[in-house]
Design a protein that fits this description.
Elements: H1 11-21, E1 25-29, H2 33-46, E2 50-55, H3 56-62, H4 64-73, E3 81-88, H5 91-100, E4 104-107, H6 114-129, E5 134-139, E6 144-147, E7 150-152, H7 163-170, E8 174-177, H8 197-206, E9 212-214, H9 222-230, H10 243-250, E10 254-259, H11 261-277, H12 284-307
Parallel strand pairs: 1-2, 1-10, 2-3, 3-4, 4-5, 5-8, 8-9, 9-10
Antiparallel strand pairs: 6-7
């Protein structure tokens, strides 16, 4: 199946518009019907373009048929929604996503030697572009844990001196870079940690026509940490990226920001609150509906107050 059969668009079109308009398109991760509905409801209420991000492990969890069945049945504005494979780790995983109807894929070769990263990225781009599917690649390594397939112990900043050659040789449509963000809940050791805007500025100067992407950029709202802990959880010392830093990054060429942890926190806080306050609750629709409501509110907040993508659809 081709993504056009599902009414989707590719991310190249979305990100080039964002590059010209100085805003970012949110890439929100989802895992099931409720999280998908929360994202699409937020996009509809804000009239924002949206990227539906699915990791390899989330695709395995949902399965091809259920995932694409939900995409086919979902209601959204045509040509304003992309379905994106987040952190594909091989040519085969990216090819599979393209073949079942994804409109965009990310190949994460950041842990590979540069020559191998270029080789596989180019191979994926050659295949994807035959079907007008966009490709995101990565240079630099983000520390932290995204899921069981994406993790790293150390951080390696993107080298601005090699980005132009990499972009040219791979024919990538967008580039994910490492300038101080991290996967997971623990992105900073202290509140004084800053993104490396000096590196970002050099990268943007060297590849001015290539949309740049930030992974690991959740802000980790303290209100959800507090609620989770209040209603029986135990999360300590979680720190995200300050919204003001993210907005500054958007003004410097960042056109796509990936958000996962914030949405997990909102959803989890909603479920914990329902279980804590309603000891006899047994109907999944009741607690999942409230969790979906909390996640929708968080998506709207990110769209309005960080991405500035309201009314950009």
């Amino acid at each position: 199946m081709h993504y056009s059969d599902f009414g989707l668009t590719n991310t190249k079109k979305l990100l080039m518009r964002a590059l010209r308009g100085k805003y970012a398109v949110p890439a929100f991760n989802f895992y099931n019907m409720e999280t998908l509905k929360a994202i699409l409801t937020a996009a509809e209420q804000t009239n924002s373009p949206i990227i539906l991000a699915v990791s390899e492990s989330a695709l395995q969890y949902m399965g091809d048929d259920i995932l694409m069945g939900m995409i086919r049945g979902a209601k959204y504005k045509k040509n304003q929604v992309a379905l994106h494979l987040d952190h594909g780790h091989s040519f085969d995983s990216c090819k599979h996503a393209i073949d079942i109807g994804f409109s965009s894929v990310m190949f994460d070769g950041s842990a590979l030697p540069l020559s191998e990263n270029i080789k596989i990225s180019k191979k994926i781009a050659d295949y994807a572009h035959k079907y007008d599917v966009s490709v995101e690649t990565e240079l630099g390594v983000l520390a932290g844990i995204e899921d069981e397939l994406t993790y790293a112990d150390s951080h390696l900043y993107t080298d601005p001196n090699i980005v132009a050659n990499f972009a040219k040789r791979t024919n990538t449509d967008s580039l994910a870079i490492a300038v101080g963000t991290s996967h997971g809940l623990y992105k900073r050791k202290s509140d004084s940690d800053k993104l490396r805007f000096d590196i970002l500025q050099k990268i943007a100067h060297n590849i001015p026509n290539t949309p740049l992407v930030l992974h690991g950029a959740s802000s980790i709202p303290q209100k959800y940490i507090n609620d989770i802990n209040k209603f029986g959880g135990k999360l300590n010392n979680a720190r995200g990226i300050n919204a003001s830093q993210l907005k500054r990054a958007i003004s410097m060429h960042i056109t796509k920001i990936n958000v996962d942890s914030d949405l997990r926190l909102a959803f989890t806080a909603g479920i914990r609150e329902q279980f804590y306050k309603n000891k006899n609750i047994t109907n999944p629709r009741q607690y999942l509906d409230f969790a979906m409501y909390k996640m929708t509110k968080q998506c709207i907040d990110e769209i309005k107050n960080i991405m500035s993508s309201t009314n950009k659809a």
